[in-house]
Recover the amino acids of this structure.
């Protein structure tokens, strides 16, 4: 460890004392001064929600969830479909399923485990979330290293290889710096630094509290880091989706539990295949199908374009989840976009 770097926590924490972001799951400085620790349920929920979404977007969901399910016991007792519907719009639905699984395991254990080593054994909890919950709720001097912290450290240390390969080095560097008496503040301070100053584009080095320790800044090359491995292009898939109505009802379908958007309500449609859009297939029944337009969505591993078809029937209804059009809610984003083309309330 660079001897100079060992003084970094002091400067960072001085800055944090006056610049900490106020977020709904955080303790304020006054609460922290009394020795209170954050609620592990709120920290865990926030960290799971904030993975790959913005803080304002995630915060809206956090407030809605904690109002409806104020404790891990309440969440564990919730119906699967209620939680999946409340999660709609946050994406990554496997995360919502793991959220429920985890809540139920925590309740069966009698509460959240208190160490990162134990936390990481729970469904959906990776090294970052385990470190964050352990540090923020239980005071363990654990490293909470997410993409923001990785970016900050790849700049501080001017890591020359692709940072994806330097994760272990970054984790150990952060781990060596966590002050034993203030792990929670240190974790939050690093998150805040990455979110507000050492941002992905145009880091504001001039006002950075740790610039004296930063190799990238000394070389005037902050934006060169993190050096990323070459990206491979995402595959592109196409398919068809159907808005079949009968009077004031529309046909929805419950997707299989396993797989993409598993367990969610969706719209009937074709298989999504790689390549250019093909002829219409996968219609749930014969009807005078009219094309309304196309919707696009980007998932983690592929991009998707769906042609959206509308049809109306007045006779025998095919099997499925028939729902009043006015009552449709909680569809995953890709289906919500398609449903939006129907142009009815
Ligand atoms: Fe990031 Fe610049 Fe601060 Fe270095 S000096 S940590 S590059 S904001």
């Amino acid at each position: 460890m660079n001897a100079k770097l060992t003084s970094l926590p002091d400067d960072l924490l001085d800055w944090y004392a006056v610049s900490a972001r106020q977020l709904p799951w955080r303790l304020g400085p006054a609460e922290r001064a009394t020795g209170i620790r954050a609620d592990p349920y709120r920290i865990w929920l926030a960290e799971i929600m904030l993975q790959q979404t913005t803080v304002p977007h995630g915060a809206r969901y956090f407030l809605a969830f904690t109002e409806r399910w104020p404790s891990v016991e309440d969440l564990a007792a919730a119906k699967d479909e209620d939680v999946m519907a409340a999660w709609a719009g946050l994406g990554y639905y496997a995360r919502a399923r793991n959220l429920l699984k985890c809540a139920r395991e925590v309740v069966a254990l009698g509460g959240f485990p208190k160490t990162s080593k134990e936390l990481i054994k729970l469904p959906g909890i990776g090294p970052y979330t385990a470190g964050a919950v352990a540090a923020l709720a239980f005071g363990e001097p654990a490293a909470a290293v997410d993409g923001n912290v990785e970016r900050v450290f790849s700049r501080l240390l001017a890591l020359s290889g692709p940072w994806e390969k330097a994760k272990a080095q970054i984790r150990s560097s952060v781990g060596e710096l966590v002050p034993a008496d203030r792990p929670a503040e240190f974790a939050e301070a690093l998150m805040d630094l990455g979110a507000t100053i050492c941002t992905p584009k145009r880091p504001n080095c001039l006002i950075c509290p740790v610039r004296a320790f930063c190799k990238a800044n000394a070389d005037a090359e902050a934006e060169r880091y993190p050096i990323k491995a070459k990206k491979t292009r995402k595959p592109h898939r196409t398919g068809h989706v159907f808005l079949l109505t009968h009077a004031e009802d529309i046909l929805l379908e419950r997707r299989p539990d396993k797989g993409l958007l598993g367990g969610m309500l969706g719209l009937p449609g074709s298989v999504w295949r790689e390549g250019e859009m093909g002829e219409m297939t996968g219609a749930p029944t014969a009807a005078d199908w009219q094309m309304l337009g196309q919707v696009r969505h980007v998932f983690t591993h592929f991009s998707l374009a769906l042609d959206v078809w509308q049809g109306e029937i007045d006779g025998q209804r095919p099997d499925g989840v028939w729902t009043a059009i006015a009552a449709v809610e909680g569809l995953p984003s890709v289906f919500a976009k398609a449903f939006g083309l129907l142009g009815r309330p």
Observations:
- Residues 152, 155-156, 197-198, 203, 205, 208, 210-211, 214, 216-217, 222 surround iron/sulfur cluster (CB under 6 Å).
- The radius of gyration is 24 Å.
- The CA atoms of residues 19 and 313 lie 60 Å apart.
- The longest strand covers residues 236-246.
